[in-house]
Amino acid sequence: MKSILIKALPILFITSVSLTAVAVDVENSRNGYSLHENQTYASQTGYQKLLSGGDLTSWWTQNISSTMRTAIIPNRLSANTFKSNSSDWTKELGEVTANTHLGEMTLTDAINDPRAAVKAMIILHKGEVVLETYPGLRPTDSHFWASVAKPTAALLIEQLIDEGKLHDSDTVSTHLPDFAGTALGNTKVIELLDMVPGTDTHDSSKTRMDPDSIATRYYRAEFGEAYKNGKVETVRDILKSAGRTSPAGQVFEYSSGITQMLVFIAEAVTGQSWSDAFDDRVWSHVRADSALQIHLAPDGMAAAHGIVSSRLRDLARYGLLYTPYWSLVADKQVVSDAALARIAKPHYSHDTFMKGDGKRFTSYLGEAPLGNSRQWDAVYADGGMFKGGLFGQGLYVSPNEGIVIAYFSTVPSSPLHRFVRPLAKKLYQN
């Protein structure tokens, strides 16, 4: 199957970072934008301004295909109709409380607080909708997933492992010969999946402020911004230049560039573009409401680490693929039981997790997990799985209970992250 390609001009990328909490009137994004606003925001779009989480960010998260090349993966099956049990649950879930960086508050308070800039939220329990709200979106609007998309890159790798076409222990150069002799060429697939490569590819506030860091360079390349001497690099070439900082497997260091290595491997093994492979293997089997948008770098690289857009319900459908209720939203099981078992048991220790970015994820979730696993930020002993994204996006899945919590926001730090565990536990009781 072939996805449809839409071309647009790349957006400006600025390297310095300012993560300032900004209140956003999300009603503006729900009501739509004028011609003047669209033109103004498009001309002002820049990386530093996007990270502020203000009105420009709010516009961009719903209009990425206006600023970047985009592969459209159509919805090929008729959408399923979710049963709704929200009348019994909405008030009860709205009263769930959490201690957030904005203070102790109920879920209803968090959704209504302009500092949280919540665009939309949905909760499924055993495949039924128990809460759904759209303060800043129309239900038919698509929105930026951010790093919530990272498990999509891992899913293709999981399928190829299931099929015996690659192994966790394979080195990168086994499948990408052009990486032979590089630091990442000697890195194992499992070390990519769990983000413990021991290379200078770390994506953090510090590396984003360094104009010469690998992270800054691969974001520049992704958005078509020249690095030096007017040259626009490619993410692939930048990652070839990565150096080793420590033995692999010792520290969890978050990196979108490492996720992109999984994209390159999936393309090499399948012989397809990543978008076409994801279409064939996953999205064509999902009973989605609308198309999935995969936004692309200037060289056509699918930015599956995070620059992906869809409707909220389709993100929830994706989450449900990781549960026994997958048949409600798909015509075949695309996440195998074996893959789920691999995700549920972190390969590396809790100590490896906490030596690095595990401290940050534990802090904003409010409850320490077992660790990160295979592109999921956190997995818990009761089976809960969480993946977060910049600007407060989130996807929480409890496979055994068929719980899916999905949300879109527009602030760098969302209070909703602190609610996923209390909400899941509330639903466990029923």
UniProtKB/TrEMBL annotation:
Pfam families: Beta-lactamase. Residues 120-418 form the Beta-lactamase-related domain. The keyword NAD does not apply. Keywords: Signal. InterPro entries: Beta-lactam-related, Beta-lactam/transpept-like, Diverse_Enzym_Activities. It comes from the Bacteria. Residues 1-23 form the signal peptide. This is Beta-lactamase family protein. It comes from Pseudomaricurvus hydrocarbonicus.
